[in-house]
Design a protein that fits this description.
CATH architecture of the largest domain: 3-Layer(aba) Sandwich
Largest sheet: 7 strands, mixed
Order of helices and strands: EHEHEHEHEHEHEHEHEHEHEEE
Strand content: 15-25%
Structural class: alpha/beta
CATH topology of the largest domain: Rossmann fold
Radius of gyration: 22 Å
Distance between the termini: 6 Å
Length: 333
């Protein structure tokens, strides 16, 4: 089976290429606010960001101060954190929005103080990003993750059709674990995963659908309810992220169901625990979301913005968007 694959203080002076407007700075300070530090993917992304800072310090011989705060699901708390970052002299702020539809206060405060903002992972509305030239977004192509999840299921059905279609009726009976009500990623992943399976010529029947807020424990609870209602009629579990997919697996483990009798369970993100479940064989598939790559590009973008440098070396950049590609990951015998 193959799996595809905080604060530091230092002084440095920019002398550089003598570009007009280039500043000399004794330090660069970056403030980061995350919507939930206990989200597995976000936690891994922050670990990668800290590693990227260390690498950048070694590369430049200088130092970067990185301050990370947890908004704990509160947009008002996140707004206060950004205000504190600005008042404390942060050169750039990076924001994992609690509410992707409500960045107005953050944008207004940053624009007033002339502090660039890099939004990441939870994409804001395009019109909001266009409100000021110093707003950026780093993430992945959301549409791609949903399509790839559907493609993996279709490929698995082609290879192991009888094992996925347990009752042999030619229809995949499925349940859907959706991340968050009204969240763009959740909506797109849900729609495109199912549509891609159907477009591959595989009939499907939805048995259940539930919001589990990206959360493993909530997903386990929802899955237990479905198991009581539908039993072994469930042939496919589609999940908007790995944590919820793992919650579904937890429900089967708690019920002491043999691994051979699990439905095909598919997640998204390719987290460390998700990839371990792939190796175990309990998770049928995931879509790798390159958090480490996003962290690296976000740090590169933040550093160059703070130093008034060209952004030409930021990979995958189109306009003010930086989107990294996904990869399919699937269990294979």
């Amino acid at each position: 089976m193959a799996v595809f694959g905080l604060a530091a203080g230092l002084m440095f002076v920019l002398t550089g290429c003598g570009r007009t407007g280039e500043r000399e700075k004794n330090s660069i300070k970056i403030g980061v606010s995350v919507y939930d530090q206990y989200d597995t993917f976000i936690a891994q992304l922050m670990e990668s960001l800290e590693e990227a800072v260390k690498e950048k310090e070694m590369e430049t011989g200088g130092s970067i101060t990185l301050e990370v705060q947890n908004a704990a699901g509160s947009q008002s708390e996140q707004n206060n954190q950004i205000e504190d970052f600005i008042h404390s002299g942060c050169d750039v702020v990076c924001v994992n929005l609690v509410d992707r539809t409500d960045p107005t206060m953050i944008i207004d405060k940053a624009k007033s103080a002339d502090v660039p903002v890099i939004f990441f992972n939870r994409e804001l509305v395009e019109e909001d990003l266009e409100r000021w030239e110093k707003l950026y977004y780093v993430g992945a192509v959301t549409l791609e993750s949903g399509i790839m999840q559907g493609e993996i299921v279709a490929e698995a059905y082609k290879d192991y059709g009888k094992r996925l279609d347990k009752n042999g009726d030619g229809i995949l009976q499925y349940v859907m674990l959706e991340g968050e009500a009204g969240h763009q990623d959740a909506i797109i992943r849900t729609e495109y995963s199912v549509n891609t399976i159907i477009e591959a010529g595989i009939p499907v029947e939805k048995l259940g659908h539930a919001i589990a807020n990206w959360n493993r424990g909530q997903a386990q609870s929802k899955m237990q309810q479905w198991m009581e209602t539908f039993g072994d009629k469930i042939e496919l579990v589609l999940s908007n992220n790995d944590d919820m997919a793992l919650g579904a697996i937890d429900a089967y483990k708690a019920a002491e169901i043999p691994l051979s009798e699990y439905p095909f369970i598919a997640g998204i993100d390719g987290t460390k625990v998700g990839l371990e479940a792939i190796q175990e064989g309990s998770l049928g598939a995931t879509v790798f979301n390159d958090g480490a790559g996003q962290a690296k590009e976000m740090l590169k973008l933040a550093y160059d913005l703070a130093a008034d440098k060209s952004l030409a070396d930021v990979e995958y950049m189109e306009g003010r968007y930086v989107r990294l590609p996904h990869q399919k990951v699937r269990w294979k015998e």
